[in-house]
User: What shape does this take?
Amino acid sequence: MSKAVSALGGVSHKGFVEVSEAGLQGMITVRGDLASAKMKKAVKAATGTAVPEARRIVIAGDKAAAWMSPDELLIMVPYTEALATVAALEEALAGEHHIVADVSDARAMFRIKGAKASQALLKLCPVDFETLAEGEIRRTRAAQVAAALWKSAEDEFSLVSFRSAAGYVFGALEVSARTGSEPFPA
Assistant: This one.
């Protein structure tokens, strides 16, 4: 059996901010009635968090639940826990209309770090970063690719895209973060 590898092998670039592939991340799409008692209990058991409100991400250590649409969540767990988490969610949601799918190997995650991280992203994403609150997730585009992003720490954003477009997304981030290309250099 081969060992899992991330989309780009942890590539990174240091410009006016640092952009890097975050490595393997367990990601699970869960669809169903987000207000149901079973869903709330299942998400709490899987992540230690509540079902997030619209356009929010709730993080508890190395696990998270992110709102993706009125009937969809993205559950994030360590990569090695993804399959067991899928099984636990399936069991917890039995008898209720739902879909649970491990999308870990279909997604790539990137980190954008530095005091001007939002400047690198605003060249690629139609997002008002001045109003993006901590704990808010935004489904958007990074250049021409569907993406989701959130402020994951002080001066840091996380961005998730399709793995098939990981090279393109990293290339766009690398160009966007090149030293001297800051939109607001002062």
